[in-house]
Design a protein that fits this description.
The chain is mainly alpha-helical and 332 residues long. It has a domain of 209 residues: MetI-like fold. α2 packs across α4. The longest helix has 37 residues. The radius of gyration is 26 Å and the shape is flat. The two termini are 12 Å apart. The N terminus is likely disordered.
Length: 332
Amino acid sequence: MNQTTEVAAVTGENIRKSSALGTFLKRLFKEKPLGTMGGILVLILLLAGIFADVIAPYEYADVHPVDRLLPPSSTYILGTDGAGRDMFSRIVYGARISMIVGLSATALYTVVSTAIGLISGYIGGKFDIILQRFVDAWLCFPGMVIYLIVMNLIGAGMLQIILVLGIGSGIGGSRGARAWAFWIKEIAYMDAARALGASTLRIVLRHMLPNVLPMVIVSFSMAIGGIILAEASLSFLGFGIPPPYPSWGQMISGQSRAIMERAPWVPLWPGVAITLTIWGMNMFGDAVRDLIDPRLRGGIGGLGSYGSKKVAKVLKKRDAMITKTRRRTERG
């Protein structure tokens, strides 16, 4: 009997390790073409930022006064700006800066909002009331006003803008995780974990966090667009990434407004880059949410059509192995 139990345990673990990632990738390409396109697009932008030194034909700060405001051509693929700088090179280098700021600030936003929401929702009581009144007071002020005040105090820079946008937006975004925490903590297995003496930290990390992961993924994908736009607004007001470093927001909000009619390609290409990034993040985040959320129809955790057949096949094979082992044990 012990051998039978060991075979079942080993087989189950092998199933989880070998089939989870493969099933996810197969279903992503098969069932979510827009999500696949979004993921590929974001990956291309990330690679462009990483290998900007190789891809860009010019440095982002190279100035060619004779070639000011040239339209797209074979020499300058996306044209030049008011200082004669190559737009394609600045877009590629801007991908590095905008993606660093966008991804870093959004990751910090996700950590802050999830931590505040889960802890507040799980503990509840007076602690939750006091903490939520602070969140309410925070949300009473327009986010951009808070960002401007803090950036004026600590100064402009990449690290500063990441911290301000990540923490500032994370406080206001904690209500989603809090609502999930209220729902999850009433489930039976949470009572079982508390009855077994599990600590608050273990319950939050081991039992609650995995259940809010789909919400975290969607929140991340939806927040990155707003954070990139917030960075553009701060750059327009002089509190973003300082020149001459290019960011897509700065390229839109700088001198491009004054020359928009004469050279529409100057604000156009940074806007296209921001739009494609936001679209790609949203599509990929929604696809991942649909595939891993066990409460949604077709999710891996909910045993959708593909997952059901796969699991049924594996369980049938496992039962055959258990029966075979049991017969050997009885003969021995």
